[in-house]
Amino acid sequence: MKNVQLSLDKVAIEYHGVTVNFYNQLALSFRDWFDIKPVIRHKGYVYHWNLRMDEAYLYLRYQPWWQKKSRKYTLQIETHPNYLVKFRSLLDALYGHSQEVYFNR
């Protein structure tokens, strides 16, 4: 095992306890900055965004179908580890508005 190399091509992070009010502010910002709308009810989440900055991408999902109706839901992001820097301001804001953060993939 001396010559084993590890390569990560994707990282997924879950932010638990993100309020609906904060998500709504994000959604308005995405419409202004990226001129896009979310895909509704896609792959286990109610809202699904595909954000792009140059070659960098970030998939953002909010409000899993299985979570009970609430004012706070889980938000998940997925991207290549190299692109985390491009979306740093978004990630910092998410961290500040969540109760718990988990690396799940």
Distance between the termini: 23 Å
Q: Order of strands across the biggest sheet?
A: 2-3-4-5-1-6
What structural category characterises the helix and strand content?
Answer: alpha+beta
Helical content class:
10-25%
How many E strands? 6
Shape: globular
Strand content: 35-45%
Mean pLDDT: 89
Outline the low-pLDDT stretches.
none
**Tally of separate helices:** 2
Query: What are the secondary-structure elements, in order, as H or E?
Result: EHEEEEHE
Characterize the biggest β-sheet: 6 strands, antiparallel
Radius of gyration: 15 Å
Write up what this structure looks like.
With about 100 residues, the protein is an alpha+beta fold. The chain contains two helices and six strands. Strands 2-3-4-5-1-6 form a six-stranded antiparallel β-sheet. The radius of gyration is 15 Å and the shape is globular. The mean pLDDT is about 90.
Short account of what is shown:
The protein is an alpha+beta fold and 105 residues long. Helix content is 23%, strand content 41%.
Topology:
Layout: E1 11-19, H1 20-34, E2 39-42, E3 45-53, E4 56-64, E5 72-79, H2 88-96, E6 100-103
Antiparallel strand pairs: 1-5, 1-6, 2-3, 3-4, 4-5
Task: Considering the chains and any ligands shown, give keywords for the structure.
six-stranded antiparallel sheet, single chain, 2 helices, alpha+beta, 105 residues
